[in-house]
Amino acid sequence: MSGVGLVVALTGGIGSGKTTVADRLAVLGAGVIDTDEISRALTARDGAALEPITAVFGPDIRLADGTLDRARLRELVFSDPSARARLESILHPRIEAIMLERLAALQTDYAVLVIPLLFETGQERHADRVLVVDVPESIQIARVMRRSGLSETEVRRIIAGQIPRLERNARADDLVDNSGTRADLEPRLRELHRIYTRMAAAR
Ligand code: ATP
Q1: Domain-located, residue 58
Q2: Which residues are noted in the entry as ATP-binding (predicted)?
Q3: Is any atom of ligand 1 closer than 6 Å to the C-beta of 178?
């Protein structure tokens, strides 16, 4: 198993602030594993998932330079649930395997696994606690639009494909409210860091 004393799964809706929170906890001393980053590496040029994705979706899923046509793939999986399931069956087991491999190698007091679709993929079993980053939908939409250039309709469509906010929050052991500034996050993140460090030592 892992070398850490406590495993925390960090989740939240798109643009809620998962990366922002995880980066800060890493600075405080947490061992962070980001499954989004693993997913990007798997689907990058020469990534291990690129060939399996091409085998399932056809050569048109690659751009002329050989890289993945992410816009096309996103469109496909949004309009077709079975395409989404096929993509997930390629990506999720690979992401999970790499995540667990990295977790086993960590030497920090506690680990933070950033898993955007934690409940949707049933991965709570890997964690001792679940930490949810929460923002009201209006802030979530504004931040994602500012960052990505997606339209409000597109952001709402992504949100609609995720577990509803209240359900996600109800399943959290710990919550971080990220509706304020980044500086506003600081006391709560320091508190959580203290709590997790203490819990890890007690196990
Ligand atoms: P995704 O689900 O897309 O991976 P995420 O949950 O990891 O996103 P972040 O990338 O941390 O969220 O934050 C989303 C955007 O909002 C980023 O552009 C980030 O810089 C910005 N942001 C995060 N927290 C705050 C804050 N408290 N105040 C203002 N902007 C913020």
Answers
A1: yes
A2: 15-20
A3: yes
